[in-house]
Amino acid sequence: MAALQERIGIIAGAGQFPELVAQGAREEGLCVVMCGFVGHTDPEIENHADVFEMLHLGALSKLIQFFKKNGVTRVCFAGAINKPKALDVRPDLRAAKVLFKVRSKGDDVLLRGVLDELESEGLKIVQAAELVPNLRGPSGVLTKKKLTDKQRETLAYGIPIGEQIGSMDIGQCIVVREHMVIAVECLEGTDATIKRGAELGGKGCVAIKLLKPNQDERIDLPALGLNTIQNLVDGGYSCLAYYANKTLFFDKEAALALANDHNIAIVGVDDEFKKSLI
């Protein structure tokens, strides 16, 4: 590696996102310095990094030292952290101080506390999606199946509720049907919420995946993909709505093909769309 090559730090969780971000970084000529977490990150991701270290979740001091030792000035977050497993985290002294300072243990508050610590050490936080902009889900109806009047009414009812729940830092996904909230995402994640919603609400439910109103868009963007659509198919869902350009959409072509095969409408929601529902 050239001595003057810029180095970007990637904090890697689970899934394919860290690999895609690493590929995007290399295409921009960046050296990839990546750290993963035991029990959350696939060890094989090391093959996509120039420098790699596996840490225990909560080892904030070691994380910062690792990036600074390797000349990193910009850092991004990529991939999911298993939230139930994260309850068993053993924080080091620095992480413990973050936990002590924050007013709650919600996702956004905790992550913001970690960001503050990283930035206090001169590490600039950037959005991972900037390295893979094609992963952003576009606006509008993406499927052959268009929205029915009933589905539009359901979205008009559900989107404001989803935003209110998100503002309390609870979750990104809700399931609605017949002007009723069937399921709300908490620690279990979107896939489990979709499955529970189908069990409770039966066929014809609508899933809504939203960015929390106060969420820092540099980290933890909502995500969906082929597995999400398969869960919708298995649960007999009729529609999925997500925040356009603020949601990561993995394996989009295959996911849309599956949705088309099962007459599921998928729509990317933006401000204009929300106005049209009023």
From TrEMBL:
<dbReference type="Pfam" id="PF06230">
    <property type="entry name" value="LpxI_C"/>
</dbReference>
<dbReference type="InterPro" id="IPR053174">
    <property type="entry name" value="LpxI"/>
</dbReference>
<dbReference type="InterPro" id="IPR043167">
    <property type="entry name" value="LpxI_C_sf"/>
</dbReference>
<dbReference type="InterPro" id="IPR010415">
    <property type="entry name" value="LpxI_C"/>
</dbReference>
<dbReference type="InterPro" id="IPR041255">
    <property type="entry name" value="LpxI_N"/>
</dbReference>
<feature type="domain" description="LpxI C-terminal">
    <location>
        <begin position="138"/>
        <end position="267"/>
    </location>
</feature>
<feature type="domain" description="LpxI N-terminal">
    <location>
        <begin position="7"/>
        <end position="135"/>
    </location>
</feature>
<protein>
    <recommendedName>
        <fullName>UDP-2,3-diacylglucosamine pyrophosphatase LpxI</fullName>
    </recommendedName>
</protein>
<dbReference type="Pfam" id="PF17930">
    <property type="entry name" value="LpxI_N"/>
</dbReference>
